[in-house]
Amino acid sequence: MNFFDFAIISYVNQFSQHSWLFDKTIGFLAQNGLVKGGVLTTIIWWAWFKREDRHSHNREHIISTLFGGVIAIALARALAVTLPFRLRPLHEEVLHFLLPFGMAPQRLEGWSSFPSDHAVLFFTLATGLAFILRKVGIFALFYSILFICFPRLYLGLHYPTDIIAGAAIGITIALIVNIYFVEKKTIQSIVNISSSKPNLFYPLFFLFTYQIADMFGSSRHLVDGIFKLIQIIIA
Protein backbone atom coordinates (compact mmCIF):
# COMPACT_ATOMS: atom_id res chain seq x y z
CA MET A 1 0.00 0.00 0.00
CA ASN A 2 1.36 3.41 -0.96
CA PHE A 3 1.65 6.37 1.41
CA PHE A 4 -0.97 8.41 -0.49
CA ASP A 5 -3.69 5.78 -0.01
CA PHE A 6 -2.67 5.08 3.57
CA ALA A 7 -2.72 8.75 4.57
CA ILE A 8 -6.12 9.55 3.06
CA ILE A 9 -7.85 6.37 4.21
CA SER A 10 -6.47 6.82 7.72
CA TYR A 11 -7.60 10.45 7.84
CA VAL A 12 -11.13 9.71 6.59
CA ASN A 13 -11.50 6.65 8.82
CA GLN A 14 -10.97 8.72 11.97
CA PHE A 15 -14.54 10.04 11.54
CA SER A 16 -16.02 6.53 11.53
CA GLN A 17 -18.49 5.68 14.34
CA HIS A 18 -18.70 9.31 15.48
CA SER A 19 -22.30 9.54 14.35
CA TRP A 20 -24.75 6.69 13.74
CA LEU A 21 -26.86 8.94 11.50
CA PHE A 22 -23.91 10.03 9.35
CA ASP A 23 -22.57 6.49 8.93
CA LYS A 24 -25.99 5.12 8.01
CA THR A 25 -26.54 7.98 5.54
CA ILE A 26 -23.24 7.25 3.82
CA GLY A 27 -24.14 3.55 3.73
CA PHE A 28 -27.50 4.41 2.17
CA LEU A 29 -25.83 6.52 -0.52
CA ALA A 30 -23.45 3.67 -1.35
CA GLN A 31 -26.21 1.08 -1.71
CA ASN A 32 -29.19 2.89 -3.18
CA GLY A 33 -29.26 2.56 -6.96
CA LEU A 34 -31.74 5.40 -7.40
CA VAL A 35 -29.41 7.87 -5.68
CA LYS A 36 -26.42 6.62 -7.70
CA GLY A 37 -27.25 5.71 -11.29
CA GLY A 38 -30.84 6.92 -11.16
CA VAL A 39 -29.83 10.58 -10.95
CA LEU A 40 -27.43 10.52 -13.89
CA THR A 41 -29.72 8.45 -16.11
CA THR A 42 -32.56 10.86 -15.35
CA ILE A 43 -30.32 13.68 -16.55
CA ILE A 44 -29.58 11.63 -19.68
CA TRP A 45 -33.33 11.33 -20.41
CA TRP A 46 -33.72 15.07 -19.81
CA ALA A 47 -30.86 15.77 -22.22
CA TRP A 48 -32.41 13.47 -24.84
CA PHE A 49 -35.62 15.54 -24.97
CA LYS A 50 -33.90 18.87 -24.45
CA ARG A 51 -34.74 21.31 -27.23
CA GLU A 52 -31.72 21.61 -29.49
CA ASP A 53 -30.73 23.66 -32.48
CA ARG A 54 -30.41 22.20 -35.94
CA HIS A 55 -26.64 21.76 -35.81
CA SER A 56 -26.31 20.12 -32.40
CA HIS A 57 -25.53 16.45 -31.94
CA ASN A 58 -26.93 15.98 -28.44
CA ARG A 59 -28.59 12.65 -29.14
CA GLU A 60 -25.53 11.34 -30.93
CA HIS A 61 -23.47 12.27 -27.87
CA ILE A 62 -25.92 10.44 -25.60
CA ILE A 63 -25.82 7.23 -27.67
CA SER A 64 -22.02 7.42 -27.87
CA THR A 65 -21.76 8.00 -24.11
CA LEU A 66 -24.04 5.06 -23.30
CA PHE A 67 -21.95 2.78 -25.50
CA GLY A 68 -18.90 4.21 -23.77
CA GLY A 69 -20.48 3.24 -20.45
CA VAL A 70 -20.78 -0.38 -21.58
CA ILE A 71 -17.14 -0.38 -22.70
CA ALA A 72 -16.12 1.26 -19.42
CA ILE A 73 -17.81 -1.25 -17.12
CA ALA A 74 -16.57 -4.20 -19.20
CA LEU A 75 -13.01 -2.84 -19.10
CA ALA A 76 -13.21 -2.22 -15.35
CA ARG A 77 -14.31 -5.80 -14.66
CA ALA A 78 -11.63 -7.17 -17.00
CA LEU A 79 -8.91 -5.16 -15.21
CA ALA A 80 -10.17 -6.24 -11.79
CA VAL A 81 -9.94 -9.89 -12.84
CA THR A 82 -6.62 -9.77 -14.70
CA LEU A 83 -4.57 -7.37 -12.55
CA PRO A 84 -2.99 -8.52 -9.26
CA PHE A 85 -5.65 -8.90 -6.56
CA ARG A 86 -5.95 -5.93 -4.20
CA LEU A 87 -7.67 -6.19 -0.84
CA ARG A 88 -10.24 -3.54 -0.08
CA PRO A 89 -9.40 -1.15 2.78
CA LEU A 90 -11.95 -2.70 5.17
CA HIS A 91 -10.24 -6.10 4.70
CA GLU A 92 -6.67 -4.80 5.01
CA GLU A 93 -5.32 -5.76 8.44
CA VAL A 94 -2.49 -3.21 8.29
CA LEU A 95 -4.99 -0.35 8.26
CA HIS A 96 -6.89 -1.48 11.38
CA PHE A 97 -9.93 -0.06 9.59
CA LEU A 98 -12.77 0.97 11.90
CA LEU A 99 -16.01 -0.09 10.26
CA PRO A 100 -18.71 2.60 10.11
CA PHE A 101 -22.00 1.75 11.84
CA GLY A 102 -24.05 -0.71 9.80
CA MET A 103 -21.14 -1.82 7.61
CA ALA A 104 -20.75 -5.61 7.29
CA PRO A 105 -17.11 -6.77 7.56
CA GLN A 106 -17.66 -9.34 4.77
CA ARG A 107 -18.86 -6.72 2.26
CA LEU A 108 -17.41 -7.46 -1.22
CA GLU A 109 -15.00 -9.97 0.22
CA GLY A 110 -13.12 -11.75 -2.58
CA TRP A 111 -13.63 -8.83 -5.02
CA SER A 112 -10.52 -6.93 -6.06
CA SER A 113 -10.50 -3.23 -5.20
CA PHE A 114 -8.71 -1.87 -8.28
CA PRO A 115 -10.07 -0.07 -10.25
CA SER A 116 -13.35 1.33 -8.98
CA ASP A 117 -16.00 0.27 -11.48
CA HIS A 118 -18.34 2.91 -10.04
CA ALA A 119 -15.83 5.64 -10.84
CA VAL A 120 -15.20 4.21 -14.31
CA LEU A 121 -18.89 4.12 -15.25
CA PHE A 122 -20.15 7.33 -13.69
CA PHE A 123 -17.22 9.47 -14.81
CA THR A 124 -17.86 8.18 -18.32
CA LEU A 125 -21.47 9.33 -18.10
CA ALA A 126 -20.61 12.66 -16.46
CA THR A 127 -17.95 13.49 -19.05
CA GLY A 128 -20.34 12.57 -21.86
CA LEU A 129 -22.96 14.94 -20.44
CA ALA A 130 -20.41 17.76 -20.55
CA PHE A 131 -20.43 17.47 -24.35
CA ILE A 132 -24.14 18.31 -24.30
CA LEU A 133 -24.11 21.09 -21.72
CA ARG A 134 -20.97 22.01 -19.80
CA LYS A 135 -22.77 23.07 -16.61
CA VAL A 136 -24.68 19.81 -16.51
CA GLY A 137 -21.47 17.85 -17.02
CA ILE A 138 -19.74 19.73 -14.20
CA PHE A 139 -22.70 19.06 -11.90
CA ALA A 140 -22.60 15.36 -12.84
CA LEU A 141 -18.86 15.20 -12.13
CA PHE A 142 -19.22 16.77 -8.69
CA TYR A 143 -22.24 14.59 -7.95
CA SER A 144 -20.21 11.50 -8.88
CA ILE A 145 -17.39 12.58 -6.57
CA LEU A 146 -19.51 13.49 -3.54
CA PHE A 147 -22.43 11.05 -3.66
CA ILE A 148 -20.99 8.04 -5.48
CA CYS A 149 -17.22 7.88 -4.97
CA PHE A 150 -16.75 9.44 -1.51
CA PRO A 151 -19.15 7.00 0.22
CA ARG A 152 -17.16 4.08 -1.17
CA LEU A 153 -13.97 5.65 0.17
CA TYR A 154 -15.51 6.33 3.59
CA LEU A 155 -16.90 2.79 3.90
CA GLY A 156 -13.55 1.23 3.07
CA LEU A 157 -14.64 -0.22 -0.26
CA HIS A 158 -11.98 1.59 -2.29
CA TYR A 159 -8.65 3.34 -1.96
CA PRO A 160 -8.25 6.85 -3.41
CA THR A 161 -6.08 5.48 -6.22
CA ASP A 162 -8.84 2.99 -7.14
CA ILE A 163 -11.19 5.90 -7.66
CA ILE A 164 -8.64 8.16 -9.38
CA ALA A 165 -7.67 5.38 -11.81
CA GLY A 166 -11.33 4.58 -12.45
CA ALA A 167 -12.13 8.24 -13.08
CA ALA A 168 -9.18 8.55 -15.50
CA ILE A 169 -10.35 5.48 -17.43
CA GLY A 170 -13.93 6.73 -17.56
CA ILE A 171 -13.01 10.22 -18.70
CA THR A 172 -10.67 8.83 -21.38
CA ILE A 173 -13.33 6.49 -22.76
CA ALA A 174 -15.92 9.27 -22.78
CA LEU A 175 -13.57 11.61 -24.65
CA ILE A 176 -12.77 8.95 -27.25
CA VAL A 177 -16.38 7.96 -27.99
CA ASN A 178 -17.66 11.54 -27.98
CA ILE A 179 -14.92 12.86 -30.26
CA TYR A 180 -14.50 10.00 -32.71
CA PHE A 181 -17.79 8.04 -32.67
CA VAL A 182 -20.43 10.79 -32.74
CA GLU A 183 -20.51 11.22 -36.51
CA LYS A 184 -20.31 7.51 -37.32
CA LYS A 185 -23.16 6.17 -39.46
CA THR A 186 -24.00 3.52 -36.87
CA ILE A 187 -24.64 6.15 -34.20
CA GLN A 188 -26.68 8.27 -36.58
CA SER A 189 -28.77 5.29 -37.66
CA ILE A 190 -29.63 4.52 -34.01
CA VAL A 191 -30.74 8.12 -33.51
CA ASN A 192 -32.85 7.91 -36.67
CA ILE A 193 -34.65 4.82 -35.33
CA SER A 194 -35.88 6.92 -32.41
CA SER A 195 -37.94 8.91 -34.93
CA SER A 196 -38.84 6.21 -37.43
CA LYS A 197 -39.66 3.46 -34.90
CA PRO A 198 -40.27 5.06 -31.50
CA ASN A 199 -42.39 2.10 -30.34
CA LEU A 200 -39.28 -0.10 -30.71
CA PHE A 201 -36.59 2.38 -29.72
CA TYR A 202 -37.91 3.80 -26.44
CA PRO A 203 -38.70 0.52 -24.62
CA LEU A 204 -35.18 -0.69 -25.49
CA PHE A 205 -33.72 2.70 -24.55
CA PHE A 206 -35.47 2.49 -21.18
CA LEU A 207 -34.15 -1.04 -20.52
CA PHE A 208 -30.64 -0.02 -21.53
CA THR A 209 -30.54 3.08 -19.33
CA TYR A 210 -32.06 1.06 -16.47
CA GLN A 211 -29.17 -1.40 -16.73
CA ILE A 212 -26.72 1.50 -16.79
CA ALA A 213 -28.29 2.88 -13.60
CA ASP A 214 -28.17 -0.58 -12.04
CA MET A 215 -24.54 -1.05 -13.18
CA PHE A 216 -25.77 -4.16 -15.01
CA GLY A 217 -26.34 -5.85 -11.65
CA SER A 218 -29.60 -7.55 -12.64
CA SER A 219 -28.07 -8.59 -15.98
CA ARG A 220 -25.12 -10.18 -14.20
CA HIS A 221 -27.44 -12.00 -11.80
CA LEU A 222 -29.51 -13.26 -14.73
CA VAL A 223 -26.43 -14.56 -16.55
CA ASP A 224 -25.11 -16.18 -13.36
CA GLY A 225 -28.48 -17.84 -12.83
CA ILE A 226 -28.54 -19.19 -16.38
CA PHE A 227 -25.03 -20.63 -16.01
CA LYS A 228 -25.95 -22.27 -12.71
CA LEU A 229 -29.10 -23.74 -14.27
CA ILE A 230 -27.09 -25.10 -17.19
CA GLN A 231 -24.59 -26.67 -14.79
CA ILE A 232 -27.42 -28.33 -12.85
CA ILE A 233 -28.98 -29.68 -16.05
CA ILE A 234 -25.64 -30.99 -17.35
CA ALA A 235 -24.78 -32.57 -14.01
Architecture overview:
It is globular, with a radius of gyration of 19 Å. It starts with a helix and ends with a helix. The chain has helices at 3-13, 20-31, 34-49, 58-82, 117-130, 134-154, 160-180, 185-196, 198-213, 217-234. Helices cover 71% and strands 0% of the residues. The protein has 235 residues and is mainly α. The mean pLDDT is 88. Helix 2 crosses helix 6 (134-154) and helix 3 (34-49) runs antiparallel to helix 9. The longest helix has 25 residues, at 58-82.
Spell out the blueprint of helices and strands.
Layout: H1 3-13, H2 20-31, H3 34-49, H4 58-82, H5 117-130, H6 134-154, H7 160-180, H8 185-196, H9 198-213, H10 217-234
Helix pairs in contact: 2-6, 3-5, 3-6, 3-9, 4-5, 4-7, 4-8, 5-6, 5-7, 8-9
